[in-house]
Automatic annotation (TrEMBL):
It is an enzyme of class 2 (transferase). Its EC number is 2.8.1.13. It comes from the Bacteria. The record marks 126, 339 as: Interaction with tRNA. It is found in: Cytoplasm. Residues 148-150 are annotated as: Interaction with tRNA. Catalyzes the 2-thiolation of uridine at the wobble position (U34) of tRNA, leading to the formation of s(2)U34. Keywords: ATP-binding, Cytoplasm, Disulfide bond, Nucleotide-binding, RNA-binding, Transferase, tRNA processing, tRNA-binding. Belongs to the MnmA/TRMU family. This is tRNA-specific 2-thiouridylase MnmA. It comes from Antiquaquibacter oligotrophicus. It catalyses: S-sulfanyl-L-cysteinyl-[protein] + uridine(34) in tRNA + AH2 + ATP = 2-thiouridine(34) in tRNA + L-cysteinyl-[protein] + A + AMP + diphosphate + H(+). One of its GO terms (molecular function) is tRNA-uridine 2-sulfurtransferase activity.
Length: 368
């Protein structure tokens, strides 16, 4: 097959590209330039897509003897990921930019261009696996190592995208094994630290970054009954479940810490309350997709995962009136509108939806 290897400059994508070459595929490496003003060097383990990363990817491609290109996707990335991130926070939601990047850049814009150029598949360094059922339908499954599993952030992939996706690291037992293989191959990046946080906010200061982009206006901090407890410097900087940075100035009546329960962008208000009020009995969303065949039942048992590193929770899902509704067997903790809920059946990723609304498991009367 003719395979386009997406090479970020990290150890995972380097080894994935190498394995694609070893498998006998005709491989071409490509690095995505996602910023018009990339930093020259990385700051510790933060950020990615820097000039240094591009050079690391190019060095590996040279060692593998494959063609290497840099594709400028910065304009598309800004519109589909960065601007979306700002819009979601402005609307009081908590977005996951990695999901949007996989959905709209790596497996939409990149894959579309690859297919147009005659490639059969795009290979990435994600830890996930693809299997085929008896009828020839492709399915997305968790990686062999659950500790490194990245199927959650791939939950946005459609059946058509799975047909052209390749994950050479999916069956690898551990990241240590990947680093060891990179060292054996002579890749200088074998000990390079993993990137983390949001790639376009490399210093990790999301609140400061948002304040610079959308501005910050003082507003009220309320309890669940509507009583004003204090003020904040901008609602967009808060997210559901947040504890730090409230600066209310006096403790709750029971002496327990308060948490952000709701962000109201239209009125610029932040609602806070006790931890138990974060318990969510139901989540639902209209923006959903299926990673392969759609479920045939209107209601079915499943597991739901609401964060990349969260544990899956047994639940019941219903598809009704253009909306996916999930009721967990036990309440979920600290769910925010805008987060992505990924639905699993066993190890298979069935699909995903963006959470539009939640139903609290604790009524207001139980404590403001």
């Amino acid at each position: 097959m003719k395979v386009l290897a997406a090479m970020s400059g990290g150890v995972d994508s380097a080894v994935a590209a190498a394995r694609a070459v070893d498998a006998g595929h005709e491989v071409v490496g490509v690095h995505l330039a996602l910023s018009r003003q990339p930093g020259t060097l990385r700051t510790g383990a933060r950020g990615c897509c820097t000039i240094e990363d591009s050079m690391d990817a190019q060095r590996v491609a040279g060692q593998l003897g494959i063609p290497y290109y840099v594709w400028d996707f910065s304009e598309r990335f800004k519109a589909d990921v960065v601007d979306d991130f700002i819009a979601e926070y402005t609307a009081g939601r908590t977005p996951n930019p990695c999901m949007r990047c996989n959905e709209r850049i790596k497996f939409a814009a990149l894959l579309d261009k690859a297919i147009a150029l005659g490639f059969d598949a795009v290979a990435t360094g994600h830890y996930a696996t693809i299997s085929t059922d008896a009828a020839g339908n492709r399915e997305l499954h968790r990686a062999a190592s659950w500790a490194k599993d990245q199927s959650y952030v791939l939950g946005v992939l459609t059946a058509e995208q799975l047909a052209h996706a390749m994950f050479p690291l999916g069956a690898t037992p551990s990241k240590a094994e990947v680093r060891a293989e990179a060292a054996e191959r002579g890749f200088l990046l074998h000990a390079k630290p993993d990137s983390h946080d949001i790639c376009f906010i490399p210093d990790g200061d999301t609140r400061g970054w948002l304040a610079d982009k959308v501005g910050a206006e003082p507003g009220a901090i309320l309890d669940r009954s509507g009583a004003v407890l204090g003020t904040h410097e901008g609602a967009a900087a808060f997210t559901v479940g947040q504890r730090k940075g409230l600066n209310i100035g006096f403790p709750a009546d029971d002496g327990k810490p308060r948490f952000v329960l709701e962000v109201r962008p239209k009125t610029n208000e932040v609602v806070v309350g006790p931890r138990e009020a974060l318990a969510i009995a139901e989540i639902a969303g209209e923006r959903y997709s299926w990673a392969g065949l759609a479920p045939t039942e209107v209601e079915f048992a499943c597991e739901v995962q609401i964060r990349a590193h969260a544990d899956p929770v047994p639940a019941t899902a219903r598809v009704l009136d253009g909306e996916v509704v999930v009721t967990p067997d036990e309440p979920l903790d600290g769910v925010a509108p805008g987060q992505t809920a990924v639905i699993y059946v066993g190890t298979r990723v069935l699909g995903q939806f963006t959470i539009d609304r939640t139903v609290s498991a604790v009524p207001v009367a139980a404590g403001a």
